[in-house]
Task: structure prediction
Amino acid sequence: MSAPAAPLRWRSTPVAMPLAGEIEVPGDKSISHRAIMLAALAEGSSQVDGFLEGEDTRATAAIFGQLGVRIDTPSASRRIVHGVGLHGLRAPASVLDCGNAGTGMRLLAGLLAAQAFDSTLTGDASLQRRPMRRVIEPLARMGARIEAAAGDLPPLRVRGGATLQGIDYALPVASAQVKSALLLAGLYARGETCVREPHPTRDYSERMLAAFGWPIRFAPGRAQLTGGHRLRGCAVQVPADFSSAAFFIVAASLVPGSRLLLRAVGLNARRTGLLTALRLMGADIREHAPREQGGERVADLEVRHAPLHGIDVPVELVPDMIDEFPILFVAAAAARGTTRIRGAAELRVKESDRIALMAQGLARLGVDVAECADGATIEGGRIGGGSVASATDHRIAMSFAVAGLVAAAAVEIDDCTHVATSFPGFLALANSAGFALQQAPAPDAD
Result:
């Protein structure tokens, strides 16, 4: 038997030249997941353009193939989904593997809870460490029967044949994934399902349900619908993923003389807290040609280098930038002065404990950082070289790749394989914009 492949490592080297050019990052991961799901449940065919060709979203598409939905791929980033209607899914012959996709697993839990058949959702080692109580508990209130491993961890065994009842549920912690799972279950439930949030989260599911013709009422912090309607196939244009654009926004802000133009970036109001935070830090980010694309606001973002300074990140921005905190840590480390981050305890239960890993990695690069339960205090000004751990977390790997651009020496990043879950082709696109990023050899064995 051949030996397993060595983990993918990157070396990010300081750059002497500005970043420049026009780039287009891949499609939004969250919207790609939802487009496949709703198109599968719709009556008629749907065309999805801008679909993210990442491992997570492909896993979701593959699951619907197991559930009896035909999905064609006429070209890269395009899917033709032949919907089977709300009650047309078939029992899978095997376990449904979500890969690394927490979004996929949580949303599917809500969708599958109302089916006539049993199903089991699993994922990779990272996903199997992510708690699912937040979604299991409210779905159980609706009548779902979901069993999990000890500690409410995956795999999830979803029992079929349940009769669901709509509920009025106040989320204890703001979560677009849990909200979306309840709304998907609500499509099948008797009566009305209403979800209330302590802070507004991204409304991708609400907007897409409306686009597919389902009557839904929503406003910041609240969404409600009733069961018994139909979804109708339609065309979906997925905007460029803001979370993917965030690495280039920070990189161009930090590298002297840089100017990057990022095309057609999704600017959902519940997703772009990082823009506000960076502008408070002094970033020069301009929006051009604002427009609507697939029901979502998009614009071309022009980013020019600007000296950043530390801030106390407003707590009210936290729900709107939860996926962008790793790269914000890097911006804070390169900024002049102190940045304080609080209210971000959710980072400890993402693909990894992102607070701990970012704090540890920055400390290894010589940054003065003090970790706390729900954030960190970062003394910025200088990033040194060294080797850091990503713990297979894609966003941490890409964040440290940006740190290497303005570090005193090269930054080596361990297992970067999972970057392909959200941003296939990151290395090539980054280097086309002026990064000095390459695969690094594995460290010598002792």
